[in-house]
User: Fold Glycoside hydrolase family 13 protein from Agromyces larvae.
Amino acid sequence: MYVRSFADANGDGTGDLEGVLAHLDHLESLGVDAIWFTPWYASPMADGGYDVADYRAIDPAFGDLATAERLIAEASARGIRTIVDIVPNHVSDRHPWFQAALAAEPGSDERARFWFRPGRGACGELPPTEWVSSFGGPTWTRTTDPDGRPGEWYLHVFSPAQPDLNWNHPAVRAEHEEVLRFWFDRGAAGIRVDSAAMLVKDASLPVAPAAAGDPDHPHLDRDGVHEIYRAWRAVADEYDDPRLLVGEVWLADPARFARYLRDDELHGAFNFEFMTKPWDAAALRATIAETLDWHEGLSATPTWALSNHDLTRPATRYGRADSSFSFEQKRFGTPTDHARGLARARAAAMLAAFLPGSLYIYQGDELGLPEVEDLPDELREDPMFARSGGVDPGRDGCRVPLPWTPAGASLGFSPTGAAWLPQPAEWAGLSVEAQARDEASTLSLYRRMLRLRRDLVREGREAGAGLADFAWAEHPDPDVIALRRGDILHLTNLGSRPTALPPHRDLLLASTPDARNHLERKELPADTSVWLRT
Assistant:
């Protein structure tokens, strides 16, 4: 959940926690077990809240700590747990620690909590390294001394408003362990760790390789990061109901990825390989197999998702000639077939929901919302847009406020009609209210899918049928992904034409409303998923 865009209760155009409380019925009827909140902390919002000024305070735009505590409790009473987002790699440049560091002398303890370094060159005019930011551009910004002269440089692997913390400093480690306890003590069931592989840096500041997959990369996947997560796991395990730790880990090497999932570290890590793959049977089949192989012998749970608050929405991406995703290739003016994209997104949702493990859904995907690609430039706030010189559209297009009703200036998002980003007029038909009345809608599909998934998991546990042990199934068409769990067969046709349907007893669920007509002809339509009882 991206709170800013979920629902606005006070009418200022920004989503807030009271808005979430007002729509708990929607989340309960959808069938979710937990809500992962992107950062709701006090923040200048230079990067959508991922620039945290105070980990123990709710940003006033969203509410206050008492409201957060009430939300955690009321959601829990409905069987919905809360996962909060911790951002350990960096803080806001408005954070008290960084403000104290700017006011302190070089070599001070205040500066030692960050990465302050003198510059290169005769007068220190060059940055300490030529490392490239994850948002594009340099990773170092020079400070100005009290007398007005140029001072030291500080490191930020994201934007200058997000100075990196130095995890070699004991105060940094102690502070974050206390932040974990702060939220766990208030009922949070777990945390999601932002940029989990980036915390530890090579203090010698060597040259960074061009490819981020280098095992000796100076600020990615350093061995020392695992000591941090072992300490965090000890904190999580202090509680009678142990808390969850799930990490954002972008790594191509499965062996190094698996190190984060050892029994004394994280409980899970997001599967970006699956999330970014194209609509292609061979590519998806391979990444599913790899993911399951990576988790073989681990107690950690595989995770599956189609998108998040950073990626192009699947209803748009799957309609493109190149339906994969990478930040480097994201550009304005990329054509898409919206009808095809939505059909594939619905089919992909059923594929992800069938796989063993944890399923994550980004708000709005249950409505089949497309990416909003025609936002006025002056309204875009994402630093990826600004730091690329306007070449990268940024991530604002997947963060447009949700439509709740088919009428009104902001489609029910706000009681005053205000919205921090404008919604397309055609979203009226995609609103929660409109889709709830339509049995063929994407929302209705998600509700049936999640309810059936839960029932079949229970059935599998109790009787060895339903969604029991996972296995690959056979199908003669290479464009079909066939999976089996117990007596339930899953098929996804990623080809361009209908394909043969095997014998079965019953159709439990189909991603397209007209699938039953095809099934009577014993064929599976293109861009369609089905769950069959055999």
